[in-house]
Write a structure and sequence with these properties.
This protein is an alpha/beta fold and 310 residues long. It has a single domain, classed as Alpha/Beta hydrolase fold, catalytic domain (Rossmann fold), CATH 3.40.50.1820. The protein is built from 10 helices and 11 strands. Helix 2 packs across helix 3 and helix 3 packs across helix 8.
């Protein structure tokens, strides 16, 4: 498998500028772009296998969301949230300027995608107001790249509370391991819900989840991403869910919702509701998998490739 090109884009927050790193696969001049956005504690390198396959037809961009991987940490932990991540994706898209954009989002990456759709809808409303002489909403990011097709990997507007509790137990936990084999075994234990993988695949999943620091293996991400996650109240969760349902309902394009058949984050009821809202939505479930499908397996890659190429 070929290696990706590494690049970065400057993004802004209320605390100033930060750098968001990303990997790029496929021809740099290909106007058809697939943006792959990872989960809460993962990185853009999760998509290496999928991106290598999709790069035969697309330019594939896999960012490390702020605080993860090779991207900068944010000075204010309270900024680790969907609003900031959406703004960062807007900066990235304004740099790469796709003519056709597909979005693949795993877990948090899907929520960022829904947030982006909400920002596009707000921008359209703002532009409409401006045309009739009223002031535009300056808080809405400037971006003119609609999503042609959307893939939501094991995520939807409603997140099961039990799953959020489970994730909250490990997201900010410091870990320091003596060698890489210990790191692999740790990831196998905490990520059993990924389903069966070969030893080679577990090594690949671990390689960018842990980094070596002074002879020890530590997690690649800023532990402070747990700060806003753990500060969520039931009221804030309910408010966020309402906004996510609105964003999802506003999207009229094709949607593929992939789900681990044993997922504790995306319930069957939520999936059914999502399918009923959008007549162009379809789903695929993977047996023996919980939260979330890693999109490394041949059957998972085939479902996504077929959806994008149809």
């Amino acid at each position: 498998m070929t290696s990706p090109r590494l690049n970065a884009v400057a993004c802004s927050s209320p605390m100033g500028l930060h750098r968001m790193a990303y990997c790029e696969w496929g021809a740099a001049d290909n106007p058809r772009v697939v943006l792959c956005v990872h989960g809460l504690t993962r990185s853009g390198r999760d998509f290496d296998v999928l991106a290598a396959e999709l790069s035969k037809e697309y330019r594939v961009i896999c960012p490390d969301v702020a605080g993860r991987g090779l991207s900068d940490r944010l000075l204010n932990p309270s900024l680790y949230g969907v609003s900031q991540y959406v703004a960062d994706m807007v900066s990235l898209l304004n740099k790469i300027q796709p003519e056709q954009l597909h979005w693949i989002g795993t877990s948090m990456g899907g929520l960022i995608g829904l947030g982006y759709l909400g920002a596009l809808e707000a921008a359209r409303f703002s532009q409409s107001r401006q045309r009739i002489g009223q002031a535009a909403n300056a808080a809405v990011p400037v971006c003119n790249y609609p999503v042609h097709k959307l893939v939501l990997n094991d995520v939807g507007p409603h997140l099961e509370p039990a799953s959020l509790t489970r994730i909250g137990e490990y997201v900010g936990a410091q870990v320091s391991l003596s060698d890489f084999s210990e790191a692999v075994n740790y990831l196998k234990f905490v990520s059993q819900s990924f389903g069966p993988h070969t030893d080679e695949q577990w090594h690949a999943l671990t390689r960018h989840y842990f980094i070596e620091d002074d002879g020890h293996w530590i997690k690649h991400y800023d532990m402070d991403i747990a700060v806003p996650f753990k500060a969520m109240t039931p009221e804030l969760v309910a408010q966020g869910e309402m906004m996510l349902w609105s964003s999802y309902a506003s999207y009229k394009g094709p949607v593929l919702i992939t789900r681990g058949a044993e997922s504790d984050l995306l319930s069957s009821a939520t999936l059914a509701k999502m399918l009923s809202i959008n007549p162009l939505a379809r789903s695929a479930e993977f047996a023996g998998v919980g939260h979330a499908p890693t999109l490394m397996q041949a059957d998972q890659i085939a479902v996504i490739t077929k959806f994008l190429n149809d």
